[in-house]
Amino acid sequence: MTMNKRVPFVTFRTRVRDETVEGPNPYRWDDKTTEDYFSGRRTILFSLPGAFTPTCSTQQLPDFEKLYDEFVKHGFESVYCLSVNDAFVMNAWGKALGLKKVKLIADGSGEFTRKMGMLVAKDNLGFGLRSWRYAALIDDGVVEQWFVEDGLSDNCETDPYGVSSPQNILATLKWLGAP
Ligand code: BEZ
């Protein structure tokens, strides 16, 4: 699926460690915008229904981490994993998985995901509004290729995973003859 959509401009509320902050929890808010993450570089974004959930935690995110260097060879500067979870949850997830390469983006309010057209209800799981599973190749803030799992819908009974896997994206890049 190709469609040249510009990624929506939003502000993401991140939490960063800052040793100058006194007390037992030395973190502060650090706002980042869409431009900070996506401007002036080729990036891959993949988005999933929830931190710590089984497929996301044991397959999709670890596989992107393992295959990260392959994406770098294709000229991508960053690989981002986004979820409609807050910055505290995303930081804890990254720490639990020992992430070193893939960067996490917390879209706690779901604003980015909604503006991407990917916000779905997952009330059937008690999750509220979350991201449909998808990935996108993004060049300087413009989506050049989408990898959206089939069946985008509210309260979907299944959780398709394959199209947005790193293996499928790499196979597609190879098939397209991408450098
Ligand atoms: C999973 O990644 O396995 C998952 C995602 C959302 C809800 C339930 C499971």
TrEMBL record:
Keyword flag Aminoacyl-tRNA synthetase: no
Residue positions of the active site: 56
InterPro entries per the UniProt record, alphabetical: PRX5-like, Redoxin, Thioredoxin-like_sf, Thioredoxin_domain
Top-level division of the source organism's lineage: Bacteria
Domain Thioredoxin: 1-178
Family matches, as CDD domains: PRX5_like
Pfam families reported in the protein's UniProt record: Redoxin (PF08534)
Enzyme Commission number(s): 1.11.1.27
Keyword field: Antioxidant, Oxidoreductase, Peroxidase, Redox-active center
Catalytic reactions on record: a hydroperoxide + 2 glutathione = an alcohol + glutathione disulfide + H2O
GO terms under cellular component: cytoplasm
GO molecular function: thioredoxin peroxidase activity
Biological role: Thiol-specific peroxidase that catalyzes the reduction of hydrogen peroxide and organic hydroperoxides to water and alcohols, respectively. Plays a role in cell protection against oxidative stress by detoxifying peroxides.
Family as reported in the entry's similarity comment: Belongs to the peroxiredoxin family. Prx5 subfamily.
Protein name: Glutathione-dependent peroxiredoxin
Organism: Rhizobium tibeticum
